[in-house]
Amino acid sequence: MSSYLKIYFALILFSLTSCQSNAKMHKDWIYQPADKLLAEQKLKQFAPEKDKPIADLIVKIGISFLETPYVAATLENGPGEKLVINLHELDCTTFVETTLALARTVKSGKTDLESFGAELERIRYRNGIRNQYLSRLHYFWEWILDNTKKQIVSDEPNLQGEKSQKIVQFMSTHPESYPVLKGHGELLPDLAGQEKALSANDFWYFPKSNPENLLKNLRNGDIIGLTAPIDASIEINHTGIIVQKNGQSYLLHGSQSHKKILLSEEPIMDFLKPESKNSGIMIARPMN
Length: 288
Description:
Number of helices: 10
Shape: globular
CATH class: Mainly Alpha
Order of helices and strands: HEHHEHHHEEHHHEHEEEEE
CATH topology: Putative xylanase fold
Radius of gyration: 21 Å
Number of strands: 10
Structural class: alpha+beta
Low-confidence stretches: 1-25
CATH superfamily: Putative xylanase like domain
Helix content: 25-40%
């Protein structure tokens, strides 16, 4: 065999080995080639702005998702819980997570899918460790508490609001609403234990009955949860990102009714009308 052919076949073998290694690296990740392309495009697009405050990055990256289709339950893939990376279909929570993960990856100076996926996994799962379905931070209140411990966000702004006691148990009492729980009742006892542990925390939030205090504590780029009534078995009705312009706070969010990512036409208090099922706001302030 000629030296040329030996080199040719060696390159083919190296290429195949590299592909197999890459496939092994992502055997428990779910994404489409378009998602990889979109993630890396955004990371490169915003790379020149990596030294800006993370709040500004979050708003800019979030706005780049305007008109992206709203699709719910994209993370449901069985009790084994593979990491889902989906930038072309977002709901209110995955929109917030994806935007935050992109901003943090930009701040790190990385522009590759692997770095973004690792950041997303750290944000989405309890203690940053993905280990089956129940390791996901299903309740946004716990999402805020856990990501505060990881110093990804801060829940300290909420201490300027009001403290209450909250009992969450919606998931364990409504398993039929969740594809995985519907088929795996054996998960319910452990889930109920997680809910009990979460409910033992003080529930700090800004009630809509005091709009002046609420509004003065909001900042551009804040991640917020619209809180459910205190006596409800769920804690957060909706999530989004605060965008401030002309002295007013608006909500950048995945809208289920409009089926897309949009920036609200009316200020945030439009979501907190007296007849609304939202009782107030809980803040997660991104940390640089």
